[in-house]
Structures are given as structure tokens and as C-alpha cells.
């Protein structure tokens, strides 16, 4: 009789040890939203930035976590625009970079220095209506003034296409931006 109780105790102990002592997860705890391809790439893209760089996230625009995706060069593959800030000993430098996948690896193919004190808008859209997406960067300049820069892909390089000053919140939709830009 003692042998049967001992075997039962050993089996119960083994099952508890194998199964663990914690409560099983509820179904709601197991449900997670799928990761988008953009989120999978964001960690890789951050490693390409200079040491100590900090992503700038705009209050407006398309970028998620400071990164915007879109096909800027017309090859059918999305590039990434990353806006970030570098700190040197005496100043903070705002920059934007275009990253492109080449041979399955992301590489910085263009960067530019930003203006002002911060980022108001970052996005990718076809502003000049040429069928290719453009990079749109809005910088806060101070005293309620902001400056918008639009960059286009020409001859395998990014080129400043136009600049525009604005106040308030920038809205790409219905703005008539292509008409009002100063080139």
C-alpha cells in the first residue's frame, strides 16, 4: 500500500515539475497583434544611425516611431526616411536620412541637415505629381514659424525641390503645396 502511495506522489510531483507551478495563460494574454514589416525593420534601421542618435518623432505625418516608409526612387521597393538628432559637445544637430535596401541590407544613401529647433512633420508623398513619392520635412523654426522642405529623387540622388514657410499645423491633403512652393 505504501508503494502505491509513493508512486502516486512521485507521478504528481513529476507532473507538477514538468508542467510548472504557474497558472496557464488566458486566451486574451496569448493574442497579440501581428508585427508589420515596418516594425521589424525599425530596430535594424536604428543601428545604422550614429552612436547616441535619438529618433525625432513628429506630431504630424506618416512616420511610425520616427520612421516613414515609401517608394521614393520608383523601383517598387519602399525606402525608409529616418529623422534623428545627434548631440555634440555644444549643439544638437537635426538630420534626415534616406535608407535603401541593397542586397537585402539597409544602407544610408542620402542624408541632410535639418533646420530650426525640432521636427513638426515628416512624411512621404507625391507632392509634385510626377508619379514618384517625395520626402516632406517640416521643421520648427521658433516664434510659431515653421519651414517645409520637399526633396525629390532625380538622377539617382535626392535633390531639394522646394521650400515653404508655414504656421500652425501642416496638412498635406488639399494644401495646393505644389503650386505654393518656392523653388
Write a structural description.
By secondary structure, the protein is α+β, with helices and mostly antiparallel strands. The chain is built from four helices and ten strands, in the order αααββββββββββα. It has helices spanning about 1-20, 25-30, 35-45, 175-180; strands spanning about 55, 60, 65-70, 80-85, 90-100, 105-115, 120-125, 135-140, 145-155, 155-165. Strand 4 and strand 5 form a beta hairpin. The chain is elongated and about 90 Å long. The termini are far apart.
How does the SSE layout of this entry go?
Elements (H helix, E strand, L loop, with lengths): L1 H18 L7 H4 L6 H11 L6 E2 L4 E2 L5 E4 L8 E9 L4 E11 L2 E9 L4 E8 L8 E9 L2 E10 L2 E11 L9 H4 L3
Parallel strand pairs: 2-7
Antiparallel strand pairs: 1-4, 3-4, 4-5, 5-6, 7-8, 8-9, 9-10
The pLDDT mean sits at 78
User: What would the principal axes of the Cα set say about the shape?
Assistant: elongated
User: What is the number of helical segments per DSSP (H or I, 4+ residues)?
Assistant: 4
> Largest sheet, if any?
5 strands, antiparallel
Fraction of residues in β-strands: 35-45%
Provide the structure class.
alpha+beta
Radius of gyration: 25 Å
Distance between the termini: 96 Å
